[in-house]
Design a protein that fits this description.
107 residues, mainly beta, three-stranded antiparallel sheet, 0% helix
Length: 107
Amino acid sequence: MLTENIVVSAPKGGEWYTIDLTQYNIEAPVEGFFVAMEWIVSGDKFYTTNFMDNYTPYGQILRPTFEFKESRTWNYTIGRGWSLITLANNGMRYNAMIRAEVDQIKD
């Protein structure tokens, strides 16, 4: 859909961060689409965050959200293919904290 990479980093972890892609004039198919992301190898520069008492991750993190009752997040593993993440927390499903909001513009 795009011919260039869009690289972003949220200034504060654990909160929704908005990226406006209006300038790219992306047409959203009627059938729907997937929102995807890819980790970037950052070399020797690592970032840390302390969001758990007994665990400090180093490198890229995609925080979870428990806003939805259904699973919406898929994971790809080499050799195993695509699988739906079905972990739950008190009846709410674990989902990646990434989403798309589409504004409908008519000519």
